[in-house]
């Protein structure tokens, strides 16, 4: 089936090679898109401050700032364009890194006009579905919407108490420590605090601490000067500087190594730091929000986390309840996730019968809200006509529905006794692929991901790649 290319939008092409840039721009203009070009990521970042694009195409290898670094910058700015990476050095690792930071898909050189048209049309169409799902267009072009608190689903006592606490701490400038199991929505709480604070006009810059080595993490936090270490070809602004006037979210802060904890403590105490390779002291006005799924007090007692840093972080602690402690919110969450999945799939929401809802209400949710969202996506993709029953839902759960809830603390919370979330994702992809008779394009569309993203995951699972043909993603 040939993809629908009627989705036309605004596209920014970022490539330091003028011929390649103009060639892509020409093809996309012929397809009906409005296209602009930039010769570097730095130029593109300046351009997007005042303009919104539906799709950004960026080369991977560029002088100065690479395509991956450019995507990181877009992620920090919460810029809502769909990003397509162009690379002659394609690898699963590169693709996964790009997707992890928000890229829609990637395309491998050499490619033809039809491939490019298809992928950009998919990206534009997907971006509009996502924006509709969120209630409007995204990105800097709509600053009022960007400062709205994110939607938090649930009206039970636990969620009412959580909202009340968020409202209280948001009015202050104090440091907040957000505690909770994996999949409970700690980042959503952080975004809500920022959006309701006096700093909402400023940036919210986030950093996933476990994703980086200690050396790279220091550079990401504080920046570095040119020549500070091998590979530091240009100076880099750190996350604290980018968050000046706003907030910084340190996700899973317990994963920061002890030597770097001392430098973080200084920033919290004095709001000053030095870039790597520099002796110049810089001052920032930043509110710190931190999350962890561990028992931080136990980490201190075990000598893995500085006690003085713990006290500096835990000024205003907020605990996000696990889903098993707010089961009364399950029906609301189910309807929300089913509606979102239906919008992505372009169909009416599927429904659950009373037995299925009863099963979900009594399940102990080791993967929390994230597990429920994945489950509703799977139900939406694989459901046949008529309401789904408990027997169909039961085989997709991560753990035995009859098993008692784990009395796990934060240090072990969210660890399933059955399948991992990654394995659940794999089974969802395989089942969807089977439903569509191995048709990868239909499978990707149903899952709300790009074809190359799907193919990359299938390669990881050991599936043999299909033979390539002109205008098709393998």
Helices and strands in order:
Layout: E1 10-14, H1 18-30, E2 34-38, H2 41-47, E3 55-59, H3 67-76, E4 82-87, H4 92-100, E5 103-108, H5 113-134, H6 143-146, H7 157-170, E6 176-179, H8 186-195, E7 204-208, H9 214-222, H10 239-242, E8 247-251, H11 258-270, E9 272-274, E10 281-283, E11 287-292, H12 296-301, H13 307-313, E12 316-319, H14 330-345, H15 354-362, H16 368-382, H17 390-394, H18 421-435, H19 440-447, H20 451-460
Parallel strand pairs: 1-2, 1-3, 3-4, 4-5, 6-11, 6-12, 7-8, 8-11
Antiparallel strand pairs: 9-10
Helix pairs in contact: 4-20, 7-8, 11-13, 14-16, 16-18, 18-19, 19-20
Describe the 3D structure.
The protein is of the alpha/beta class and 474 residues long. It has helices at residues 18-30, 41-47, 67-76, 92-100, 113-134, 143-146, 157-170, 186-195, 214-222, 239-242, 258-270, 296-301, 307-313, 330-345, 354-362, 368-382, 390-394, 421-435, 440-447, 451-460; strands spanning 10-14, 34-38, 55-59, 82-87, 103-108, 176-179, 204-208, 247-251, 272-274, 281-283, 287-292, 316-319. The strands form 3 sheets. It has a 5-stranded parallel sheet, sandwiched between helices. A 5-stranded parallel sheet has the order 7-8-11-6-12. Residues 133-146, 405-418 and 467-474 have low confidence and may be disordered.
